[in-house]
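Let us practice reading a record.
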Amino acid sequence: MGVVVGTLTMQTKQRRPSRDKADDDLEMTIVCHRPEGLDQLEAQTNFSKRELQVLYRGFKNECPSGVVNEETFKQIYSQFFPHGDASTYAHYLFNAFDTGNTGSIKFEDFVTALSILLRGSVTEKLQWTFNLYDINRDGYINKEEMTDIVRAIYDMMGKYTYPVLKTDAPKQHVDAFFQKMDKNRDGVVTLDEFILSCQEDENIMRSLQLFENVI
């Protein structure tokens, strides 16, 4: 996930033409989906109007129609993991971005998630990550869901990972996850348990800060 966030935002950072608001408004009228106004998105996210303009141009460059369906999203995401199969993890990630269950990601969906991942509070970032892992969206992470996510990550990293992963690595990872996070040992991890456990882990907290200054 971090690779895509970093790459997309660095791509857009390289494209900073000096254009005025009229040009941006004209651009937004010629795509199939017209995003919400910049003023509204500025109020709803942690990005400035100029940052939103840069992000929009990068998004439109990758997705001229103004929306991304799951197949296109998988194709874009798989470019960052040529030695593995990223399709399953990309499916879960797509669903996390597609909060309205519309089957597509609009610029508003993209920039809202990016705002949380780059500029959100620790709690907001952890809530977003929890929702990614909560595949059936019932408010809990169970072992089956976590196993699916971990296997998808291992598939995405591919056979060239070092050191070479053992076949039982996903199960060991999931067992360690629940040993750490399932505080009351009821077989599921709640949002509160997830946030508390992550806040107690220095490595996780450091990873949340990696992309704060990307754009």
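A brief commentary: The mean pLDDT is 83.
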